[in-house]
Amino acid sequence: MLTDPRVSIIDERLKDIQSIIAISSGKGGVGKSLVASTLALALTKKRYKVGLFDLDFTSPSTHMILGIKDVQPKEDKGIIPPNVHGLEYMSIVYYSGDFVTPLRGTDASNVLVELLSITKWSKLDFLILDMPPGISDTTLDLLRLVKRVKFIIVTTSSVLAFETVKKLASLLKDLQKPVLGVIENMKRDKSDTIEKEAGKLGFRYLGSIPYDEKLEEAIGYLSQIEKTDAARSIAAITLGVSFGKRVLIHAPDSRR
Q1: What's the domain count of the chain?
Q2: How far apart are CA 28 and CA 158, in angstroms?
Q3: What does the alpha-carbon distance between residue 240 and residue 5 come to, in Å, rounded to a whole number?
């Protein structure tokens, strides 16, 4: 079996990135892309060098959340992501536009390998990956191709939603991939069910994000998103554990 020559390039493309964090979920519709986008923005506000890579090929949405329009990557012995809102941004929407990309199996693997091998990130403190939901071909390939990735899992308060998390958790544990913790999104009450369930899996419960009725109206408008309770909670949860040296551990002298 011949080895894809592009695979050997991926490590070279990622070598100057100190922390690679995948934002994942057991199912769609839990706010995974919002967490990924807001986390990336919050880190740039703390003067870290950050990249955001939307790998949800079936329904990429981070460009909509951040209001990214009329920008394209540049070609220079690879693809250089544009700088948007202070972060480097890459997504399949640069090539697919508004058309559906129903990728499966070999096609999904081929696109992932291509994007990972041609994208030229600069020297970054963090690369945030917005993953497709569940255990998809993209997730399985990423685990094989990106060795240093760590995971944050997003769920809602629904026990049914958390059942799908257990499958993802089992996979990550079997492969001995580090999970930084679980974030409970769109929380409406004071129930501690998800916190207890996360503990049973051996995962740290990072905190909850309240259901925010104003969030939908803010989509696409960065200044409005940053003012929402949801965005503030995401920043508080992730950056709080970061600077407490519990999760997103990083040397302060690496900031620009």
Answers
A1: 1
A2: 13
A3: 41
The tokens for 226 are: 């940053």
pLDDT in tens, 131-144: 988 887 778 888 88
Q: Does residue 2 belong to any structural domain of this protein?
A: no
Helix and strand numbers (H, E) in the chain are 11, 10
Strands 149-156 and 79-80: unpaired
Write the DSSP string, 155-186.
Answer: EES-HHHHHHHHHHHHHHHHTT--EEEEEEEE
In a domain, 179, yes or no: yes
Predicted TM-score (pTM) of this structure? 0.89
Residue 240: what pLDDT?
64
- Please name the residue ranges forming H helices in the chain: 7-14, 32-45, 62-65, 93-96, 105-118, 137-145, 159-174, 193-200, 215-218, 222-225, 229-243
Cβ distance 160 to 130 under 8 Å?
Answer: no
| In-domain check, residue 1 | no
CATH number at residue 29: 3.40.50.300
What range defines the domain where residue 68 resides? 7-254
Distance CA 121, CA 139 (A): 21
Q: For residue 156, tell me if it sits in a domain.
A: yes
The DSSP H or E segment spanning 22 is: strand 17-25
**Which residue type sits at 191?**
S
By the 8 A CB rule, do 168 and 34 touch?
A: no
How far apart, in whole angstroms, are the C-alpha atoms of residue 111 and residue 134? Answer: 18
**pLDDT tens-digit series, residues 191-235:** 999 999 999 999 999 999 999 888 888 999 988 998 899 888 988
Asked if 52 and 39 count as a contact pair (C-beta separation under 8 A), the reply is: no
